[in-house]
Design a protein that fits this description.
Heat Shock Protein 90; Helix Hairpins; 5-stranded antiparallel sheet; Beta-Lactamase; 526 residues; 17 strands; alpha/beta; 22% strand; 7-stranded mixed sheet
């Protein structure tokens, strides 16, 4: 025991019933103060070494151990002195017994944990400062959101009046010059209203007041309808806008259709805006994650100006664009991507981007969607009554994409047509030989036999008295593509993404309102 006490650096000590030191280790003495020896401590109490508050606390702990016989384990306590800086120790005290088992004092060990405690105190101080800064930032964000919301609402009220009155003005008699100016007012007003809507959405998101409206919806129709909105700007720039569905994609899903369309519209609009030549491709795919759920991926790829690597990390920040020349050359507020990111994250999804300057960019959205709870979503009642046909035209759909087959078939049903679907041109030729159709919707790019070859084959089989209208249905929207389709023997041309009104108007141009003579019995009965 003497050798142990003389050589260990642990702070060991033995005390009697009056808490006087009867034995201590050299490590205990070294930890107290310079110049002290073991002899200086023996027979003393904590009141001779420490400050009175600490000595009193230590005395009470030791008397409690003596009275109860229960040890005190790893108590963190602050040692305070009159002549040196304070220290922190982890102290364990146990009853000291004689050979008869009677308690004659206490035995203790104290470990210096000053460094650990000071580090923890520093962490707590930093965390407290961070909490104060976070609260201040949150308050500032709430104030900004409230300001943006108020400003947006105040401006939207007169702006709605401006747009409403200009629409009424367009219904009156105007000269061509006046009408052109009013149309420009409407266009500018709608652009401004779009910016205000973005600002308002951002303020709602930051204030935590934006809620998702979850319901069953047609995913394929939502994506197609969204892309239709941007098809006109794409055509005006002679861009190819292609909409693709890869693999099995669930058609009816459950989610916020309007917000998903807003995300896709932002991405496609940006792609068209920043692309001067080439194409924009919207690709949708899905992977089943569990029973009744799928993770849907929507990719928007363009051949535009691209983004420098240094800007990709800030691309989804509010009011941020690649550089000052972006705003000057292309316009915009830099809110669309920030809002899209917030909406995607609200839906539990992710959004990312990859890009190469001068080559193009690809934006990816991944959202897990629940399959629709309702079964058998039927077309709206009375949809067929909106057409002028006195029968249900029979239309052959030639399309290799299973998802596009569903989209086109559904659109035909809604305008009162019956449809049959085949996946390539070779099957289309065989189908026309077996049965008569009022029109053929012909995709151009297909395996086995493409639309151009199939059209030529059908035309060779026709007689002068039998001519089936063939309408090209393609994602290519250039003028020379239309010319090529007509030169191949097709009668008309519809660009993808299909717009139901355009489809209906085109079919009405080629299918009479009453059945023609010589129709087969099945069509006549229909």
């Amino acid at each position: 025991m003497r050798n142990l006490l003389a050589n260990t650096q642990e702070r060991l000590y033995f005390k009697d019933l009056e808490s006087r030191f009867i034995a201590v280790s050299q490590g205990y003495v070294d930890g107290l103060a310079r110049g002290r020896s073991v002899a200086d401590v023996i027979g003393k109490t904590d009141f001779d070494i420490f400050s009175r508050p600490h000595a009193e606390a230590a005395y009470l702990d030791e008397q409690r151990v003596i009275e109860t016989g229960q040890p005190m384990r790893a108590k963190i306590e602050r040692e305070t002195f009159e002549d040196r800086p304070d220290a922190w120790v982890s102290t364990t005290k146990m009853p000291l017994c004689d050979e008869r088992g009677e308690i004659v004092g206490t035995f203790g060990i104290s470990r210096d944990v000053t460094a650990q405690i000071e580090a923890e105190q520093e962490r707590n101080r930093i965390n407290a400062e961070l909490a104060i800064a976070r609260d201040a930032a949150l308050e500032a964000s709430n104030l900004k959101s409230a300001f943006l919301a108020n400003v947006s609402h105040e401006i939207r009220t007169p702006m709605n009046g401006v747009l409403g009155m200009t629409e009424l003005l367009l219904d009156t008699e105007l000269t061509s010059e006046q009408r052109a100016r009013v149309v420009q007012i409407v266009s500018s007003g709608e652009q401004m209203l779009g910016i205000l809507n973005d600002v308002l959405d951002l303020s709602k998101i930051e204030a935590g007041r934006l809620e998702l409206d979850v319901a069953d919806f047609d995913l394929l129709a939502a994506i197609n309808d969204t892309c239709v909105i941007t098809s006109a700007p794409a055509r005006s720039k002679e861009l190819e806008l292609e909409v693709r569905f890869v693999g099995p994609v669930p058609r009816w899903v459950r989610g916020d259709a309007r917000r998903l369309m807003q995300i896709v519209l932002n991405l496609v609009t940006n792609a068209v805006k920043f692309t001067s030549e080439g194409k924009v491709t919207v690709t949708t795919s899905a992977q089943a994650t569990s029973a009744g759920r799928s993770r849907v991926r929507i990719e928007v790829a363009d051949s535009g100006i691209g983004i420098e690597p240094g800007f990709l990390g800030h691309l989804f920040d509010a009011f941020t664009q690649a550089d000052v020349t972006t705003t000057r050359n292309y316009g915009g507020t830099g809110l669309g991507l920030a809002i899209s990111r917030e909406l995607v994250e609200m839906m539990g999804g992710t959004i990312s981007a990859t890009s190469e300057p001068g080559v193009g960019s690809t934006f990816r959205v991944e959202i897990e969607l629940e399959h629709a709870r309702s079964a058998g979503h039927e077309p709206d009642a009375g949809a067929a009554e909106t057409t002028a046909w006195h029968f249900a035209p029979h239309v052959l759909v030639v399309e290799d994409s299973p998802v596009n087959q569903l989209v086109v078939s559904q659109a035909l049903e809604r305008i009162g047509c019956r449809s049959k679907v085949v996946a390539d041109g070779e099957r289309a030729v065989a189908a026309v030989q077996r049965e008569r159709y009022d029109a053929v919707l012909m995709d151009c790019n297909m395996p086995v036999m493409d639309g151009f070859e199939a059209t030529a084959a059908i035309r060779r089989l026709e007689s002068d008295a039998r001519h089936v209208p063939i309408i090209a249905m393609t994602a290519r929207a250039m003028d020379d593509d239309r010319t090529r389709c007509l030169a191949a023997g097709m009668d008309d041309y519809i660009s993808k993404p299909l717009r139901r009104l355009t489809l209906e108007q085109t079919l009405h141009r080629w299918i009479p309102s009453v059945p023609s003579r010589g129709r087969d019995e099945q069509s006549a009965a229909a």
